[in-house]
From TrEMBL:
The keyword Transmembrane helix applies. It comes from the Eukaryota. It is a multi-pass membrane protein. It is found in: Mitochondrion inner membrane. It comes from Coniosporium apollinis (strain CBS 100218). InterPro entries: MCP (IPR002067), MCP_dom_sf (IPR023395), MCP_transmembrane (IPR018108). Mitochondrial transporter that mediates uptake of thiamine pyrophosphate (ThPP) into mitochondria. This is Mitochondrial thiamine pyrophosphate carrier 1.
Amino acid sequence: MSAEQGSQSSVLLGPPSAPSRLDDLRYTLSQPVAASFIGGGVAGAVSRTVVSPLERLKILFQIQSHGREEYKMSVPKALAKMWREEGWRGFMAGNGTNCIRIVPYSAVQFGSYNFYKRFFEDYPGAPLGAYQRLFCGGCAGITSVTCTYPLDIVRTRLSIQSASFSGISKKAGEKLPGMWALMASMYKNEGGFFALYRGIIPTVAGVAPYVGLNFMVYETMRNKFTPEGQANPGTLGKLAAGAVSGAVAQTFTYPLRFQINTMSGMGYQYKSIFDALRVIVTQEGFRGLYKGVAPNLLKVAPSMASNWLSFELTRDFLTSLRTPEV
């Protein structure tokens, strides 16, 4: 009897078990690139939803021109007009597509940044210099734009098509196309695959330095806001660092972001980045390069602050999942 019990006991205890699938999953998710990829996706969705009304208003301000001045007013009045004419749907117009776009965009951006910086680290986790952060961030921006640009240009169209602008005709009761229908229409009627990437060169020209500056300034300001004797800043420090990095990056790169101006049917199309700069400065002066910058800067603080804080919280949670080695 005792022998049988001993046998059963040895069966129950058995040899040390091999790592389970759950342990393997926890290990995979805790890796720096994977944790940054997932954290970036969460951060993008949170930050863009927070500032969706201002994101759309920036686009509507950007397409103002002579003879199309329905939104030539202050930010509060423009938001009130949007609410009065379209309600909550107006505030969120294009946000569904934007979130579908921003999750992979932000995930690829943060994940690829952590991938690229490995080539410059003296050892895993070693701090990078300012120019190294700028370069890795620029490469991450190019990678993320290339992967998600078709969703970006469709999101821009969706933000514009329901607004009240002269020259953009809408029949009474007409149901506007959704994301996939609009993408299919562009593919069929505007040049196939290349229609979905129209305007990507000026967009990359704006995004690459923007993302590079964002990462460089954030990590620099993060160190500034870290109390002496501590490894990381507090919540308010991360929020402040994110707000500063976003404002600096947007201010320096805003004139380069002209993907809207390649849109057919808006009455004008630019041939290149330099042609856009020349035409805008000639017709509207230097201030034309910063048309729509007010709502853009207003959204930068909450957007980038929530973006970086969400990213760090998610990344830290995932990296903590790694099972300690015995």
